């Protein structure tokens, strides 16, 4: 029954689909923190502060020259513990608009299409074309009109896509390791395609070396900064707005992004679009303006996208993949039942720490495990009612099988990690750890806790097998054919 249950990585990426791969690709990464190069002095609205790096001053001057910000702008980029952030220049109340960025300063697939490389980007995936644009602008250096923006972008983040092999080894056994390797492989494949189809044939547009590392840099920038849930926009980089830092550990005051930003019409007849950012919670002058990037992302997703994790227990999740094996003699019937109930041959269940099992997980498991004396339930006569029956235990054999399969899978997954929960907890308690190691420990600890929780839940089910009411008893009761204790009366056959 091993095929009943497989554990695969999951990634609800901001702009990529989930990956199913465990293949390794070559890794090349380094330089974790933002660096500021090219010392230059520029005009800015406020007197330059002595500790403000020249790149930020130049960026600010560029934004003011372009009219994106005015002297009244209530926020300003500043150095914060998380790299660059937006710092309040005055007390800002909740819901106050802190900045507005017109469409002409956005970088999205339309920007690329209208640029010098637009004609060679036709047919590229939106994220690939924006990544190509971004790395080209970086290579263009002083000739790029986006230089002040490109110069404030970090060389990398703590996203696992930038980790060295040694750093990744701390994730041994985790789903995040598989997901990261899958993403890296996908990006490497996209780069190989891009090289063959665009970079080499159009060398005149790319008269410099463009490497896979450059592409990884651009990919990581998009992954950590692009807005993807805006109306009508597949993905868009919005200079200045992308300096917003994630509120570490959830504060109920900080609302989800959908309340914090919007695209609205501006100008004559509202023809021009403007990205507008509102302050989610009152902030005092000098403090950072913070946001929640996405309340629904797991720690693995936060680590992959942004290179950060949170200690809230709901951020810890593990994705179980269940599937109906093609070799199952009832494959067709089971698939039909799954499909009639909005599911398919495979089903993914994100199990969250300290949360109940996802709806439909137990019915799907029972369906996959259905066989033997219970197989009559797969007959077409039951097709309309079967899902309701699967919501509750079907038979001791079926329930025992799902418990065994899940518990075996948990034991096997737990044996893949190189540390125990206690060891990880001790390491975290000691503190003063490298940020990437802290991310790795948080992830593997969270995954193991979820696996342990699943195992305990099914262990309890296993111990209660004798106490459940199964399909036959329920059916007899419904028909008024059960005895006083719910037992089948001796003269009753199969129902
Ligand atoms: C949208 S950018 C924000 C601007 C960024 N701080 C910078 O220096 O350019 C997102 C990135 O900021 C950093 N970041 C944001 N919130 C953070 C947090 N709470 N803890 C650590 N790093 C954070 C991460 O590197 C993340 O990938």
From TrEMBL:
Protein's UniProt name: Ribulose-1,5-bisphosphate carboxylase/oxygenase N-methyltransferase
Membership in a protein family: Belongs to the class V-like SAM-binding methyltransferase superfamily. Plant protein-lysine LSMT methyltransferase family.
GO biological process, one term: methylation
Enzyme Commission identifier(s): 2.1.1.43
Gene3D superfamilies: Rubisco LSMT, substrate-binding domain (3.90.1420.10), set domain protein methyltransferase, domain 1 (3.90.1410.10)
Residue ranges of domain SET in the record: 66-294
GO terms, molecular function: [ribulose-bisphosphate carboxylase]-lysine N-methyltransferase activity; protein-lysine N-methyltransferase activity
Cellular compartment(s): Plastid, Chloroplast
PANTHER family in alphabetical order: [FRUCTOSE-BISPHOSPHATE ALDOLASE]-LYSINE N-METHYLTRANSFERASE, CHLOROPLASTIC (PTHR13271:SF113), UNCHARACTERIZED PUTATIVE METHYLTRANSFERASE (PTHR13271)
Binding site residues for substrate: 225, 242, 261, 293, 306
Domain of life according to the entry: Eukaryota
Main enzyme class: transferase
InterPro entries assigned: Rubisco_LSMT_MeTrfase_plant, Rubisco_LSMT_subst-bd, Rubisco_LSMT_subst-bd_sf, SET_dom, SET_dom_sf, SET_RBCMT, SETD3_SETD6_MTase
GO cellular component: chloroplast
UniProtKB keywords: Chloroplast, Methyltransferase, Plastid, S-adenosyl-L-methionine, Transferase, Transit peptide
Keyword Plastid carried by entry: yes
Main location: plastid
Positions that bind S-adenosyl-L-methionine: 82-84, 225, 249-250
Organism: Spinacia oleracea
């Amino acid at each position: 029954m091993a095929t009943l249950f497989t554990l695969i990585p999951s990634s609800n990426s901001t702009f990529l689909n989930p990956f199913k791969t465990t293949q390794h690709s070559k890794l090349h990464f380094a330089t974790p923190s933002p660096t500021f190069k090219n010392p230059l002095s520029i005009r800015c609205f406020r007197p330059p502060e002595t500790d403000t790096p020249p790149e930020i001053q130049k960026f600010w001057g560029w934004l003011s020259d372009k009219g994106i910000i005015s002297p009244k702008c209530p926020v300003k980029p500043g150095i914060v513990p998380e790299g660059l952030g937006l710092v309040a220049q005055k007390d800002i109340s909740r819901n106050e608009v802190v900045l507005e960025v017109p469409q002409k300063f956005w970088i999205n697939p339309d920007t690329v299409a209208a640029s010098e490389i637009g004609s060679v980007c036709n047919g590229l995936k939106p994220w690939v074309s924006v990544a190509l644009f971004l790395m080209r602008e970086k290579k263009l250096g002083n000739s790029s009109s986006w230089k002040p923006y490109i110069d404030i972008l970090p060389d990398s983040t703590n996203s696992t896509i930038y980790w060295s092999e040694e750093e990744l080894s701390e994730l041994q056994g985790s789903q995040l390791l598989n997901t990261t390797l899958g993403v890296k492989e996908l990006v490497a494949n996209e780069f190989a395609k891009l090289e063959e189809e665009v970079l080499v044939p159009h060398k005149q547009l790319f008269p410099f070396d463009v490497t896979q590392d450059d592409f990884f840099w651009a990919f990581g920038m998009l992954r950590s900064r692009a807005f993807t849930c805006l109306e009508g926009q597949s993905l868009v980089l919005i200079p200045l707005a992308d300096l917003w830092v994630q509120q570490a550990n959830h504060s109920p005051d900080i609302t989800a992004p959908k309340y914090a930003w919007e695209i609205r019409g501006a100008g004559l007849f509202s023809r021009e679009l403007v990205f507008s950012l509102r302050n989610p919670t009152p902030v005092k002058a000098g403090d950072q303006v913070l946001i929640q990037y996405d309340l629904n992302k797991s720690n693995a997703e936060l680590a992959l996208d942004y290179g950060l994790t949170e200690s809230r227990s709901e951020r810890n999740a593990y994705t179980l993949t269940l599937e109906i094996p093609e070799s199952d003699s009832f494959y067709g019937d089971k698939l039909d039942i799954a499909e009639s109930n909005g599911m398919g041959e495979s089903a993914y269940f994100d199990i969250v720490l300290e949360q109940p099992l996802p709806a439909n997980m137990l019915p799907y498991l029972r369906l996959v495990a259905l066989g033997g004396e219970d197989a009559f339930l797969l007959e077409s006569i039951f097709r309309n009612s079967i899902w309701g029956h699967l919501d509750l235990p079907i038979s001791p054999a079926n329930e025992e099988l799902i418990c065994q399969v899940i518990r075996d899978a948990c034991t096997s997954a737990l044996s893949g990690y190189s540390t125990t929960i206690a060891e990880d907890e001790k390491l975290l308690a000691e503190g003063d750890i490298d940020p990437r190691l802290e991310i790795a420990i948080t992830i593997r600890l969270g995954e193991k806790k979820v696996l342990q929780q699943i195992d305990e839940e099914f262990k309890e089910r296993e111990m209660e097998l004798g106490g459940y009411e199964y399909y036959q008893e329920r059916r007899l009761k419904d028909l008024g054919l059960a005895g006083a204790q719910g037992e089948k009366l001796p003269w009753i056959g199969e129902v």
